Amino acid sequence: MRLDKTELILLAVAALLAAGGWIAPQWLVFLLTMALAKAMVVQGVVMQMRAGLVTFGQGLFFCVGGYAVGMSGHFLNISDLALLLVIGVGAAVLLAMILGLLMTRYREIFFAMLSLAFSMILYGVLVKSSALGSTDGFNVKAWTLFGWSPASGQGPLALFMIIIACSAVLAVLLHRYSRSSAGMMCEAIRENEVRVEYLGQSPRWVLYMNYVAAAAVSALGGGFMALSAGHIDPEMAYWITSGEFVFIALLGGTAHVAAPFIAAIVFAVVRTYAIELVPHSWQMILGFTLLAIIVFLPKGLWSLFTGNARRAKA
Amino acid sequence: MNNYKKSALKHPLTLAITAGLALSMGSSAMAAENGKFRIGVVTFLSGPAAGPFGEPSANAAKVLVEGLNKGKLPVPYNTIGINGAEIEVVIIDEAGGAAKQVEEFRNLVQRQKVDAVVGYISSGDCLAIAPVAEELGAMTVFYDCGTSQLFNEDKTPQFVFRTSLDAAVDNIGAARYLTKTRPDAQKVAGIQQNYAWGQDSWNDFTHSMEQLMPKAKVVESQMPKVFQGQYGAEISALSVKRPDIIHSSFWGGDMEALVLQANARGLLEDATAVLTCGESALDRYKDQAPNGMIIGGRGPFGAFAPDNELNRWFKDKYQTAYNTAPTYPASKMAQAILGLKHAAENAKVESGKIPAPLEIAKAFKGATFESVSGTVQMARAGGHQAMQGISYGEYQYDKASKKGSVQNVIAFSGECVTPPDGTTALEWIKAGFPGAQCN
What we know:
The structure holds two protein chains of two kinds.
Chain A: H1 5-23, H2 26-50, H3 59-75, H4 81-103, H5 108-128, E1 138-139, H6 155-179, H7 181-191, H8 193-198, H9 203-229, E2 231-232, H10 239-252, H11 258-277, H12 282-296, H13 303-313
Antiparallel strand pairs in A: 1-2
Helix pairs in contact in A: 1-6, 2-6, 2-9, 2-10, 2-11, 3-4, 3-9, 4-9, 6-7, 6-9, 7-9, 10-11, 11-12
Chain B: H1 4-7, H2 12-30, E1 37-43, H3 50-70, E2 87-93, H4 98-111, E3 116-119, H5 123-136, E4 140-142, H6 150-153, E5 160-162, H7 167-181, E6 187-191, H8 196-212, E7 217-222, H9 232-240, E8 245-248, H10 252-264, H11 267-270, E9 272-275, E10 294-296, H12 309-322, H13 328-345, H14 357-364, E11 368-371, E12 374-380, E13 385-387, E14 390-398, E15 403-412, H15 414-417, H16 425-430
Parallel strand pairs in B: 1-2, 1-3, 3-4, 4-5, 6-7, 6-8, 8-9, 9-10
Antiparallel strand pairs in B: 10-14, 11-12, 12-13, 14-15
Helix pairs in contact in B: 3-12, 3-13, 4-5, 7-8, 13-14
């Protein structure tokens, strides 16, 4: 397989970040791990945005991924990280294959509301299950990897390395997907669905495949979130969580596969410093950040990287 | 259209990330130790729990730390700061869920280099924070969360302490109060918020009632969703069953709304409400709540706090600063900080030096200290969980002075309502409270 320039750069950045992990303070390593886990869910949101669908319920798959990981650890005594993540992704894919049949019939606000509804149903069910700790959730057991477990205190760094590796592979795959015929088709559907049908393609099945793939990517993020935070609760499926993913997606823009990663990191850094500096009104700082992005960078943070080229053409 | 693949990615990406790294490293160096005792205070500053719980707690921390830094507290806390070192508070909002709190907890310990963290109202947050605190070796005092699960999951705690009571104590206490004051009650109903807190409370309460008042039957249980605000349908459902007692673990705005609506509908004239968190609105009920309504304050806090010198000082200072009496969350925050001060000063390090977390933890384990709520014994969970009594009383409104107060207060000792180590609260209740020593 030959890597193009973008992919090489993505891998180089990943390697650089991994190297940085050794010297960076531990809190930053943890913050980046959480941000990357979130970025994976945002990738799922962005995949659907490219097809013209805004989902306010991506928390559904985030939560399914997280709970599948947590419950497999508790009830099946599985502690292998790779196996746990596969179970999480598998559970989300199964669910998405069923829900997708219904979801792909809808567009625009109807799609947004229906996706929101499904994630809130899961939230409601989890809140009522006291065996799973209701709203308190439960703690996720420590993970191992192929029989190896990180030394005490080294868990966050080890997980950071793993998530960097996964993110790099995911970024390359998503980059290829966005330029494949299926990925291009998604953009075409966003522009004009009727024309796509005239071309002899079925927009519904393209969207179905895209929906399932987005669910898988989001569940991977949920699994990583569960393993790094060490705790899961129904809040993961709450609409505010899903809204946050849309927020980050808008922050980054949909132009490039790296945008959600950058946006998630910027979001995490802005938020943690906002909480530290203005503990009573940190939400306002986040709000103003989004407002500023919408006003000055309507295509998201990514337009900082392409802005000059585009302005010159316009 | 998007020809980003050629022009876009050269160095901006790497540039942005290295800039980010550099920025955050710089600030972490800034927050290095400055000789002050840094306490991270985490409580709700936004969201529905901020008004009734978070703000009074944050205010209490401010009042207390100010007093401690000036050395103005009554004995035994009349020394300056903590072990002679000035206290510096870093306050953080608890809103946003457990995953975010884990992240912010790590930031507090590793970036802001706090010497101890005092906080957490949400039980989910406490459960999530405990293993992280043990992993990082960070001195942590939970001041409010009530989950019975905490020390079931964190079986061999080292750095985690809780100066507040297990939520089961509230409901065992409520059942014991009813046994003493309403022994003839036949029909019991309940209304809880449908989440972990409400479900656990109702479970503990009904099982306690089965043991203590076997003749009383549960006739109705309503579980509206949390922060619903309107309880018309639930109040109708309760009224139809004509209960003698209505138990509710509602808190904050929900609790006040329930009292207001149920009272207006006449439900509280025939039935006595038992509100385990009722004390937090003592100053606001006015004539909207019936006299004789049973309220609790989750321990000997707020209006149930004893009249000792420490509490008089605290009430007075709080009253002058915020024009209202401290409610139970405020007392609990004060208790946690006092416990921390007591432990740090008994860690036997030189005055003016800040003891290491392990030294504080060793001194905290099994300690007995004075607080605004009387004497606190860290007597459960291997010396990591506070044991205190709990009080319930009846609401009385004085029309002349327009002030609400509590009457007929009965205090139950810690040994009477606290499950012993090695058994969960529910097991203890179901077994009929073996070993309980009641006054």
